[in-house]
Amino acid sequence: MAGNFLNRDRLPVVKRVRWADHLLRPALLTAMVTSLSVAMVNLVRAVAPAWHGTYFLAGMVLVTVEAIYSYIVLRRYGPLDISPVRYRLVEWGLLVVLLKLLTYSNQSWAFILSDLQTIARAPLTFFSPALWLFLLLCGMAWGAATSTMHDFEALYDPFTFRRERIVPLENLRTRFFWGGAILLVLSGLTHWITVAGAESLLDLRRPSLGGILLNVLFYFVLGLVMLSQAQLTVHLTRWEIQQVRVAGNVVRRWVRYGAVILVAVGSVVFFLPTRYSLGLLDSARYGLLLLVALGMGLMRLLLFLLALPF
């Protein structure tokens, strides 16, 4: 087990890649949350076309970015005289105010002044039912972003590898697939309502649907990139624990070959036909077999490329 290699007096230190920590992963995470947010906005607008979801999308992106860099700040300056509790209270208070202001983005000045006067007379009206729902969804995005950053950070901790089961990596995978499942449901309902109407949801005869859902494609491609980064971090930490010498350019090669493979897979998915002629069970069976074969082939190819001497 990995724990047998640990020495408390001389803990291995994994070399960090700053652009991955502070740019790549935050960008991937923000883009994935944006894909989910777009699906939510599209579903609501399919039912209520008059609703303007720009403020909701902006709020979800704002909260995600803030959560990411707030975690980075606390991790970097936590040992100093910063109280995490006080920091979080100020952070959440400012976020609530900013999110409230975002809800006014598509309102007239007359409505804004009237609402502010109402809040001044009755402060509890600040939290309208719509704002509560907005805060709930933004809070979920904030929690997912913070947990993801925490799990990535835990992959650099040698004590994470005391057991064969790597909990942070499992958490990242679970969060990715649950987010993907929610995204598929939201996007499927939106597409269904757009094509066949909301009343068709009560019809057991499913209409024939087709078309590329770009936000779904982006989510899964970016999620695979993020999981690839997590897997690379696992390997780097294990190699450092076991004192295995690796090539200095392994990170660049991993990113390069991984990007080529993902672009190829994304291109294939984009140009595949989106309507089906097989039955549902046959399609599911062939799709599952194809995914398993493709995943195993790509993993073998990636390991082969990493083993090349150049």
Give the secondary structure arrangement, pairings included:
Layout: H1 18-47, H2 54-77, H3 84-102, H4 109-121, H5 129-154, H6 167-196, H7 214-241, H8 250-271, H9 280-306
Textual characterization of the structure:
About 3% of the residues have low confidence. The protein contains 9 helices and no strands. The chain is mostly helical and 310 residues long. The chain is flat, with a radius of gyration of 23 Å. The chain is 71% helix and 0% strand. Helix 1 runs antiparallel to helix 2, helix 1 runs parallel beside helix 6 and helix 2 runs parallel beside helix 5. The protein has one domain. The two termini are 31 Å apart.
Relevant terms:
310 residues; mainly alpha
- Please count the helical segments: 9
The whole-angstrom Rg is: 23 Å
> How many distinct folded domains?
1
- SS-derived structural category: mainly alpha
Please bin the fraction of helical residues: over 70%
Task: Give helix and strand order, one letter per element, not per position.
Answer: HHHHHHHHH
How many β strands by DSSP? 0
What's the story with the biggest beta sheet?
none
For the residues shown, what is the average pLDDT?
Answer: 77
Shape: flat
Report how far the terminal alpha carbons are from each other. Answer: 31 Å
Query: How big a fraction of the residues is strand?
Result: under 5%
As residue ranges, the low-confidence spans are: 276-285
